[in-house]
């Protein structure tokens, strides 16, 4: 009887200790979102250090995020659609950029356990040499998303093309929409005023469509969006 009593006590202690270990196990922590500071959103960046006639170095800045081991700054050249990444331990880092060029950037906060969270993206123009009138930012394709399959019905064979346009001078006059089933041969399907950011178009089931938006400002400056693509089912 005494031996059985000791065995029961040991089993209880082992179970209790195991339970405490489970309760004390901490879950991986997710970082909070970093808040971007500079370059400012939808603005011209004029504070870069000139490196050459075509390049300058800009100090990117953001607010500290909690539970973060390091940051990754993601920068996209909106003219070439090329993306680069820079890793930083602090909340600022110098990055060399092309002058007179529109960019989009955001910050990924990375925890010690590898969890990540992205900030909202900002756009800016890196200043060119001398006085310059900038073209609008290339419009952002919103819907259909690139590669999306779109269903049509017998009563409706139209698809709504939607985008977002922005400009640091706030003088966009119109958007011209081009569509085609060959990505090397797009045709103009419509032009809308700057207060509109969508257009309906007739589509045929089974086709793959490519499309883009050209933003035009009051000075005649133009910019092309990236190429959209969707499949009609």
Automatic annotation (TrEMBL):
Q: Which InterPro entries match?
A: FN3_sf, Ig-like_fold
PROSITE patterns named among the record's database cross-references: PROKAR_LIPOPROTEIN (PS51257)
Q: State what protein this is by name.
A: Fibronectin type-III domain-containing protein
């Amino acid at each position: 009887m005494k031996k059985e009593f000791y065995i029961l006590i040991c089993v209880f202690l082992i179970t209790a200790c195991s339970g405490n270990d489970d309760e004390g196990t901490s879950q991986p922590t997710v970082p909070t979102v970093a808040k971007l500071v500079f370059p400012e959103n939808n603005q011209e960046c004029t504070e870069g250090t000139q490196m050459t006639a075509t390049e300058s170095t800009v100090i990117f800045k953001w607010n500290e995020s909690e539970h973060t081991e390091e940051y990754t700054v993601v920068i996209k050249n909106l003219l070439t659609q090329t993306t680069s990444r820079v890793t930083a331990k602090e909340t600022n880092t110098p990055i060399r950029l092309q002058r007179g060029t529109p960019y989009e950037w955001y910050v990924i906060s990375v925890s010690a356990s590898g969890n990540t969270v992205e900030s909202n993206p900002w756009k800016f123009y890196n200043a060119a040499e001398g006085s310059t009138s900038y073209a609008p930012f290339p419009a952002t394709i919103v819907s259909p998303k690139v590669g999306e399959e779109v269903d049509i019905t017998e009563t409706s064979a139209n698809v709504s093309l939607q985008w977002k346009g922005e400009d640091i001078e706030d003088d966009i006059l119109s958007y011209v929409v081009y569509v085609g089933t060959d990505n090397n041969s797009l045709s103009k399907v419509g032009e809308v005023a700057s207060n509109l950011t969508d257009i309906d178009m007739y589509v045929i089931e089974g086709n793959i469509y490519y499309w883009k938006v050209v933003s035009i400002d009051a000075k005649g400056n133009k910019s092309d969006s990236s190429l959209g693509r969707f499949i009609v089912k």
